[in-house]
Amino acid sequence: MQNRLARIIKPKSGHCVMLAVDHGYFGNIPGQLKCFGDLNPLFQYADALMLTRGMLRSCVSADFDIPIVLRVSAGASMLKDLSNEEINVTIEDAIRLNVSAITCSIFVGGEYEKQSLMNLSKIVNWGQEYGIPTLAVTAVGREMVRDHRYLGMASRMAAELGATFVKTYYCDNFENVTSICPVPVVIAGGKKTPERDALQMAKNAINAGAVGVDYNYYS
């Protein structure tokens, strides 16, 4: 497990830059994501690639040596309640794909909060059995503000359930998130922002205790 994690979070720097291109699994297909092949030039600049098994098999060359963080959850589209997810990939298929980590989302405060937390627990158990790190992607209910109180709570819950590392949103007072989460934290890119602003957010997050970023191509 530590060897697989070291492929993502580089031991020399203690940091990572992940590229998230898994948004199509719930129907969010903006701009260039319609032409997945156009993103291939970006892969060489990422420490890891986060995506679904369908796109991995169809759109990423088998001879391209990049660590894969595989999304193993799916459910409702963006037209419905996204928290209504289940695990849709077996651990055997993840192993066949030679992934470096597996991931699912938790929706703290969402309609299907408990289900999402049990999904995470399930893949944590798989990861422990087969030595595969688990990334928990945190989300909070629509009525909940993305601030350090709720994001910190969600991140800590993910760690308590056994996640190897956590992905969450950046917010003000982000050190209050990382300080209560005992596992590495990476930040999500979120909505498209000017390049300088995105870089400044990454710097602020690292200074506040994050180990890296998981930006999508349009962050």
Description:
- With 219 residues, the chain is an alpha/beta fold.
- The protein has a single domain, classed as TIM Barrel (Alpha-Beta Barrel), CATH 3.20.20.
- It is 33% helix and 21% strand.
- It is built from eight helices and ten strands.
- The strands form two sheets. It has an eight-stranded parallel beta barrel, surrounded by five helices. A two-stranded antiparallel ribbon has the order 4-5.
- Strand 6, helix 5 and strand 7 form a beta-alpha-beta unit.
- It is globular.
SSE order in H/E notation? Answer: HEHEHEEEHEHEHEHEHE
Q: Flag low-confidence runs.
A: none
- Major beta-sheet overview: 8 strands, parallel, barrel
Distance between the termini: 29 Å
Q: What structural keywords apply?
A:
8 helices, alpha/beta, globular, 21% strand, TIM Barrel, 219 residues, 10 strands, two-stranded antiparallel sheet
Question: What order do the helices and strands come in, and which of them pair?
Answer:
Elements: H1 2-8, E1 16-20, H2 40-43, E2 48-51, H3 53-59, E3 68-71, E4 73-75, E5 85-87, H4 91-96, E6 101-108, H5 113-130, E7 134-140, H6 148-160, E8 165-168, H7 175-178, E9 185-188, H8 195-207, E10 212-216
Parallel strand pairs: 1-2, 1-10, 2-3, 3-6, 6-7, 7-8, 8-9, 9-10
Antiparallel strand pairs: 4-5
